[in-house]
């Protein structure tokens, strides 16, 4: 054991100092040595030594006193582990051309212990407590009631916290007893005897298989390559960006991370967030890889926000479709300061949640003005970097040409009308009526011809002309708020009042084949859907169709319901409670009625129960099935409830009818 300190040179050893005691705790690898202090040395301050002894032991004499001579005449050294991993260290002795290596199980460093100061502090607190107690005894009588408490069972989590606590570790360390030793100096005979164990006693090298290796292999064993320790970074919230961690990244990653978090930013602000002295030219190269220039400001690219093989967190729309829609929004802001949300939604045909998210990234809503771009136009950047602005303009032209092919529009459709508006002219009412009558008489023959052609198309089974629903800025607006409960249907099927009824032939004109196919596949998968949920799935289907192949346009509620009823489905008149908050299209529930399986009977009995009850219990359904059919198996019950119902608080509801 070597005794030393970082502040004391190695030449100043403790070999000649009197060692009073030595003790060890082998399991903890702790060693303590007590060494005498020369109180007769001219460098020793006697008054200070007596004061320390008085603070530690007090005025009374006791066998437990630290300093029996009433002065600080000894010093304690305690060990600490110099390293926790000693597998790469060994003690080596070179003798007669031979290197003898002994593995080490621990390396300790001895440091002065100041535990006597803790003892002095405890003495001081005890004296203060005694004085306070004596003072209050003159004025108060204290009555103490002893309460017996029973320890509560300790949870595993509480046990782990207790084990890791400092007090517990201190207690465990104190449980191992000290083993007292006898100290032998470096030149002592016993020390010389122990030193001989450092030499290998065997002269036959064949017994030591570890050394029968090549020099390169042996050196690799003796000094294995260093392994980098993995530093666990603290986990923070996903929306919190640490600037300290950010600046450890490459410049390109810094710019990308900032733009993903901020979405839109002027170039000057970006330079302010980066480290001082960062080259602006290098930043310009990086920013053009992850962002596009809109009105002199940088907006993060869509494929950075929505990487490949991801989808919308709101609606599940694929990332490819989201990127097209968001690019259209950004392109619109390159033309003017404000856009109307309903105009954007009517073109990109994405769910309102996604459209709103696109706009919130780069704009703010204004009363009667739609959505206005978030930042003022950065004219200074455009003037300072005309080459970058020109390059970005060319990029936008390429994006525009792709968007025109996908969404079928022309840039001129969005250009502000520059032609001067004529002054308003007052026209008498009788003149207006006369002009209208003449125009109607002129166009009558043309209108009759068009009507005849449409009737012929209907008879030939042509495509149905579908009404295009208006799209509103309101997020909670249904497809068709004017539709009534059964929409002109008779017994759950379209009747003469239905728009899909062929009045010429008395037959129903079938919906578009693509719509029929979608209804069939959707109800085969979900079995029970509200009209609201079906419309959501239908919108997702439209949005995910490849560019140029969208053959089904937005349909009215009435057309959708008729299409559902014509595909082996029935409407279930669920008796919602009077205080329900469900919207009208959430109260229209449809279920798959016929699939050709014997299991259809089970579903119909379930629908019959829900036409009389808003919610049911499992036992109620089981009794109904046993009464009408036969005692159902557990597998049949599980399948029926899994396909058509949802559970809450022990009750079962049809899918989509649970009210929060």
Automatic annotation (TrEMBL):
Alphabetical list of InterPro entries matching this protein: RNA_pol_III_Rpc5 (IPR006886), RPC5_C (IPR045576)
Single GO cellular component term: RNA polymerase III complex
Annotated DNA-directed RNA polymerase III subunit RPC5 C-terminal domain residues: 416-660
Biological process according to GO: tRNA transcription by RNA polymerase III
Pfam families to which the protein is assigned, alphabetical: RPC5 (PF04801), RPC5_C (PF19725)
Highest taxon listed in the record's lineage: Eukaryota
Protein name: DNA-directed RNA polymerase III subunit RPC5 C-terminal domain-containing protein
Species, as recorded: Sphaeramia orbicularis
């Amino acid at each position: 054991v070597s005794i030393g300190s970082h502040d004391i040179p190695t030449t100043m050893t403790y070999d000649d100092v009197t060692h009073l005691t030595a003790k060890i705790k082998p399991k903890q690898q702790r060693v303590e040595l007590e060494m005498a202090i020369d109180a007769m040395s001219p460098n020793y301050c006697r008054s200070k030594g007596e004061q320390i002894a008085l603070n530690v032991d007090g005025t009374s004499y006791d066998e437990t006193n630290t300093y029996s001579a009433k002065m600080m005449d000894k010093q304690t050294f305690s060990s600490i582990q110099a390293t926790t991993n000693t597998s790469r260290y060994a003690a080596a002795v070179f003798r007669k051309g031979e290197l003898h290596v002994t593995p080490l199980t621990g390396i300790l460093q001895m440091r002065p212990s100041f535990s006597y100061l803790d003892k002095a502090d405890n003495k001081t607190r005890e004296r203060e407590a005694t004085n306070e107690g004596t003072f209050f005894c003159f004025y108060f009588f204290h009555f103490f009631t002893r309460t017996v408490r029973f320890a509560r069972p300790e949870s595993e989590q509480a046990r782990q916290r207790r084990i890791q606590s400092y007090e517990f570790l201190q207690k465990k360390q104190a449980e191992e007893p000290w083993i007292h030793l006898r100290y032998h100096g470096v030149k002592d005979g016993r020390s010389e005897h122990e030193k001989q164990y450092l030499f290998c006693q065997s002269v036959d090298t064949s017994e030591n298989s570890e050394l029968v290796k090549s020099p390169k292999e042996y050196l690799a064993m003796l000094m294995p390559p260093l392994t980098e320790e993995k530093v666990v970074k603290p986990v923070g919230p996903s929306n919190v960006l640490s600037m300290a961690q950010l600046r450890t990244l490459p410049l390109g990653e810094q710019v990308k991370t900032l733009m993903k978090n901020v979405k839109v930013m002027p170039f000057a602000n970006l330079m302010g967030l980066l480290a001082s002295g960062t080259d602006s030219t290098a930043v310009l190269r990086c920013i053009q890889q992850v962002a596009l220039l809109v009105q002199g400001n940088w907006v993060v690219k869509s494929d950075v926000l929505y990487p490949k093989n991801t989808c919308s967190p709101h609606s599940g729309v694929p990332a490819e479709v989201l990127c097209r829609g968001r690019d259209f929004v950004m392109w619109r802001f390159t033309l003017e300061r404000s856009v109307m949300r309903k105009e954007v939604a009517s073109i990109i045909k994405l769910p309102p949640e996604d459209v709103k998210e696109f706009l919130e990234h780069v704009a703010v809503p204004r009363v009667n003005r739609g959505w206005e771009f978030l930042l003022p136009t950065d004219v200074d950047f455009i003037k300072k970097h005309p080459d970058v602005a020109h390059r970005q303009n060319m990029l936008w032209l390429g994006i525009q040409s792709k968007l025109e092919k996908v969404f079928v529009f022309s840039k001129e459709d969005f250009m502000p009308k520059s032609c001067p508006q004529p002054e308003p002219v007052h026209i008498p009412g009788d003149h207006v009526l006369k002009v209208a009558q003449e125009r109607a008489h002129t166009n009558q023959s043309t209108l009759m011809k068009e009507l005849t052609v449409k009737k012929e198309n209907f008879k030939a089974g042509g495509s149905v002309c579908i009404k295009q629903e208006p799209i509103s800025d309101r997020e909670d607006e249904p497809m068709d708020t004017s539709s009534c409960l059964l929409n002109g249907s008779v017994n759950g099927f379209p009747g003469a009042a239905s728009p899909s009824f062929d009045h010429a032939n008395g037959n129903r004109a079938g919906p578009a084949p693509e719509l029929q196919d979608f209804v069939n596949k959707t109800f085969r998968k979900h079995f029970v859907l509200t009209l609201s949920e079906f419309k959501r799935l239908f919108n997702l289907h439209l949005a995910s169709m490849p560019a140029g192949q969208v053959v089904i346009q937005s349909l009215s509620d009435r057309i959708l319901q008729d299409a559902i009823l014509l595909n082996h489905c029935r409407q279930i008149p669920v008796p919602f409670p009077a205080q329900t908050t469900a919207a009208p299209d959430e109260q229209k529930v449809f279920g798959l009625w016929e699939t050709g399986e014997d299991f259809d009977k089970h579903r119909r009995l379930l629908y019959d129960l829900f036409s009389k009850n808003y919610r049911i219990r499992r036992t109620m359904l089981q009794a109904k099935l046993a009464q009408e059919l036969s005692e159902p198996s557990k597998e049949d019950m599980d399948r029926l409830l899994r396909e058509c119902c949802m559970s809450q608080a022990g009750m079962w509801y049809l899918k989509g009818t649970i009210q929060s």
